[in-house]
Every structure is written in structure tokens, then in C-alpha cells.
Amino acid sequence: MRQKAVFYHAGCPVCLDAERQLAQSLDPQRYEVEIVHLGEARERVREAEAAGVKSVPVLLLGGIPLHINFGADIADLH
């Protein structure tokens, strides 16, 4: 069974670069990755915050937010 992963981002250059690197790094046999652009899906910002997301880009893996670099503070996405 594949593990669910959610990649939240805001569409900034840092986020898009992280998305490209993520696509090349995670084994699709092991991970089911959902990409969520919070600039376009603002209704999911609260969901990300509830999961512990403080900034984007971030990979939520096994319920744990793994923050990648710094593109935008989650508070700026409201």
C-alpha cells in the first residue's frame, strides 16, 4: 500500500522548484502524492494549518509537516 503525501505550495519560484525536485525524488510505487496549490485552493489553508504547516513549500508525510526552504508564511495565504 502506498503512503499518502501532500505537498502544499503557493506557486512561488521556491515552491515550484521544490515541486520539481519532489517529483524526481519520491518513488511513485511507495508514495501517493497530492499537490495542493494554496494560492488557488484557499479553502484548504485551514486544513494545512491544522496539520501543523507554518510555511510553504511543505511536504506532509505521515501526518508530519516537513518544511522545505521558505517561500511564504502560511498566514500570508489567508
Q: Write down the Rg.
A: 12 Å
Tally of strands: 4
- Tell me the strand percentage band: 35-45%
Helix and strand composition category: alpha+beta
Q: What average pLDDT do the residues reach?
A: 92
Regions with little confidence, pLDDT below 50 for 5+ residues: none
Number of distinct helices: 2
Largest sheet at a glance? 4 strands, mixed
Q: What is the CA-CA span between the terminal residues?
A: 34 Å
What's this entry about, in short?
The chain is an alpha+beta fold and 78 residues long. It has helices spanning 13-25, 45-50, and strands spanning 3-9, 31-37, 55-61, 64-73. InterPro entries: Thioredoxin-like_sf.
Please explain how this structure is put together.
A hairpin with a 2-residue loop joins strand 3 (55-61) and strand 4. This protein has helices at 13-25, 45-50, and strands at residues 3-9, 31-37, 55-61, 64-73. With 78 residues, the protein is an alpha+beta fold. It starts with a strand and ends in a 5-residue tail after the last strand. The protein is built from two helices and four strands, in the order E-H-E-H-E-E. 24% of the residues lie in helices and 40% in strands. The protein has a four-stranded mixed sheet, with helices on one face.
